[in-house]
Amino acid sequence: MDEFTRIQTFIKVVEAGSFSAAARRESSISSVARQVKSLEDELGVRLLNRSTRSLSLTEPGRRFYERVCVIANDLNNAKSEATSFQESVKGVLRVSLRVSSGTTIIVPALPKLLEQYPDLSIDISLTDERLDLVANNIDVAVWMGDIPDSEIVARRLSPSQRIVCGSPSYFERHGVPRMPSDLREHNCVLFTARSYGNVWRFTKDGQHEEIEVQGTVCSDNGLVLLSAAMSGLGLIVVHEWMVRLPIAQGALVRVLNDFTVNPKAGDAELYAVYPSSRGLSRKVRVFVDFLVALFRGAEALTDAGALPPSRADVKRAPA
Description:
Layout lengths: L2 H14 L2 H8 L2 H15 L4 E3 L4 E3 L1 H26 L6 E7 L1 H18 L3 E7 L13 E5 L7 E7 L3 E5 L1 H7 L15 E2 L7 E6 L2 E6 L5 E2 L2 H9 L5 E4 L4 H5 L4 E3 L4 E2 L8 E6 L6 H14 L18 E3 L3
Parallel strand pairs: 3-4, 3-5, 8-11
Antiparallel strand pairs: 1-2, 5-15, 6-15, 6-16, 7-12, 7-13, 9-10, 9-14
Helix pairs in contact: 1-2, 1-3, 1-4, 2-3, 5-9
């Protein structure tokens, strides 16, 4: 009996709660017991406390179980990822998108993806809340900010690059700011979500400047702010990806290009995340690659056969 088979049997016994319950799945009680005893003999420690009525892990058994569960899960994921290359891209993909990135970037680009994979259907929920992926049966989600310690895999979509922009009609009426200090004389559209304020921060050549701005329109919703700026109501600090299309269409104009804008200390990288426990199906791989290409401004979609992402792009939270 090979070592990994014995380890898998040990995991089944722990999860089932008894030798008999584990044996009912695929083997005999005596075979299950022999495999666990053989594993204990090889390790030189007792993994399970046995009695006629109960079964419990010893301290070394608990530590061993926690480690081998991770290894077994990684192996299953590796197998799933390998076989996913033979799968067709079809079925329902359940995704959770942030409101701003979903409506301004991702949903408008979906026709190109669905044209390439006509057997794929996408079930979309829009929320800025971080839902439990497994409990809510979500295949892929888009999150912003730090990734918590949990069983997920994250791939970076976009860094936290922000820019200042406004509509051509606004600049015709009020002029174009040349320096951050000029913003004190301008109407600014303000984001009022928690921990944001009316101080915009700029950096150039190692020099930092904080400007307190004012405005007649404020909101805790990014789409409201975007609409206000496009309507000529004021200047806005916004993620570059969120206004890529309006800028290309001439509805917004970027200003203060020589300055790095960081109104809220470094928290806003965008990630595509999915549960590590499910492995990586081909439809998930295709959608994540689509998101990466989209936010990087790639002209063509990346298929599942693309090269794996670099270490800088992949982030897996510790177990």
